[in-house]
Amino acid sequence: MIRILYAPVLYLSLMASAFAQVRIPLEEPDLSIYERCLLYATLVAPANKTAESIRQECRAMAADESAPENVEEWSFSSWQDFLDTLESDEPGAITTRSELEDISKNSSFVITPHRPNFLLPAALTNDTNLSPFEGPGVDSGELDHAEVQFQLSLKFPLADNFIFDDSALWMGYTIRSFWQAYNTDISRPFRETNHEPEIFWNIPSRVSFLGLNNVANELVLNHQSNGQSGTRSRSWNRVMLASYWERGNLGLIVKPWYRLPEATDEDPDENPNIEEYLGNFEFVGNYQVSGHSLSLMLRNNMRGENKGAAELSYSFPWLSRVDGVIKYFNGYGESLVDYNRHTERLSIGIQITDWF
């Protein structure tokens, strides 16, 4: 009930404040409640307020405006309830994210989130691979099955209206670390850190197919490496085609890729079969409602000897600036050093930003 009362109060205060500051008329029949909230909240937001928090507040407010008073949790009474969320007149999940990025991307004080950003203090695996670390002073230690895992993923626009109107050239960087924080026997080392810089050209789209809207496509030049040398070195370069689709609260990413050849007579390929394990494409599905999010990531090599990976992630409202998150991973390539080793892991922690 508190949330139901909070929504109209928030809406009225935002509108009144915006009207006083920028003289925008209150009556705008072409704007939905969600759109008005985004507009006014962005105009009057304090400097330390994030675009993600504005989006969550506006979505909650829009949902509360139309929800029965006795509905206070994320649940569906029927399959039709789920379909109704996909048929919403509000902007889709990916479109909403893009609109917020357009507002802030050219600010000198903003670096835009790229992929999910999270911290997992409890990352528990069924097996740890000691073989890449065997050597003087290391082989006597053992790796813990429990470690800390975190990912930081950011992007920055390089050029607007790049070649075509409304398209943009971006630079992205993602770092994912696996930290043996609880392993006092070997001085709590970072077991593995993967670096993934990329440059991508984003082109908006208005194509529709089977009820889904293709809102953007990207051409991506991607490098992924663990920054090591010798027998622990893992790296590869790829050209990707990423396609973004949405329907209401459902967002989809389909990302096939081609690995660029690296081997020469002087410098042989250190990871000649990495694509057999990490696959030839990645699929991401993300569904959001009332602050809750369910994501599925799939990779596959599309070969007779089938290998790949799946990751299921559920996030839920927790603190004012972060969500709680539970992740389950099963397959190959969770970290580059273990790309050819099957891993199963359950992780619990916090998530700062989601896919959309």
Report on this structure.
The protein has 356 residues and is α+β, with helices and mostly antiparallel strands. It has two domains: 2-72, no CATH class; 112-353, Outer membrane phospholipase (ompla), Chain C (Beta Barrel), CATH 2.40.230. The protein has helices spanning 2-22, 33-44, 51-66, 79-86, 93-104, 274-278; strands at 112-113, 117-125, 146-160, 168-179, 190-209, 212-225, 235-247, 250-259, 281-289, 292-300, 308-317, 323-331, 343-353. It has a twelve-stranded antiparallel barrel. The model is unreliable at 1-29 and 66-74 (pLDDT under 50).
In total, the number of strands is: 13
CATH class of the largest domain: Mainly Beta
Number of domains: 2
CA gyration radius, whole angstroms:
22 Å
Topology:
Blueprint: H1 2-22, H2 33-44, H3 51-66, H4 79-86, H5 93-104, E1 112-113, E2 117-125, E3 146-160, E4 168-179, E5 190-209, E6 212-225, E7 235-247, E8 250-259, H6 274-278, E9 281-289, E10 292-300, E11 308-317, E12 323-331, E13 343-353
Helix pairs in contact: 1-2, 1-3, 2-3
Task: Write a compact overview of the structure shown.
With about 350 residues, the protein is α+β, with helices and mostly antiparallel strands.
Defining traits:
6 helices, Outer membrane phospholipase (ompla), Chain C, alpha+beta, 2 domains, 40% strand, 12-stranded antiparallel barrel, disordered N terminus, 356 residues, 13 strands
